[in-house]
Amino acid sequence: MKKEVILAISIGFALGLIITFGIWTANQSLKNLPQPSPKASVAPSPTPNNQLANNQLTINIPDDEALVSTDTVTLSGTTTPKATLLVVSENGEQTTVADASGAFSLDVDLITGFNTITVYSYSTDGQEASKSLTITYSTAKI
């Protein structure tokens, strides 16, 4: 038992020395780094790119939170001309491309109950816009 205690103390002491040496070496390296002069020029901060707001997306039909009695709804709206659109719904994904005026239209299949439809618009220069809406499909008579 005495041998194990002495061995544990020796190993702990050796590890402590190794860790202490590592910390000392790191501190010495940090002290040798060149310090910036107080009059050093500061790089100008980047200016915001106002072009990011150029990709507009509007969904005209259907209205958000609409209640429909058919299992398919026609989704139409406007976006940036020639933008690629990705429509993600409960039944999967669809893609389409807006025409030269930015108009788009496609049929989206619905499941019974709540359907969250998210439309992503990617302009030809890489800008993104997105909109989400909830459509409820029900065959119940009101």
Automatic annotation (TrEMBL):
Top-level taxon in the UniProt lineage: Bacteria
Transmembrane segments annotated in the record for this chain: 6-26
Keyword tags: Membrane, Transmembrane, Transmembrane helix
Protein known as: Polymorphic outer membrane protein
The organism of origin for this protein: Candidatus Amesbacteria bacterium GW2011_GWC2_45_19
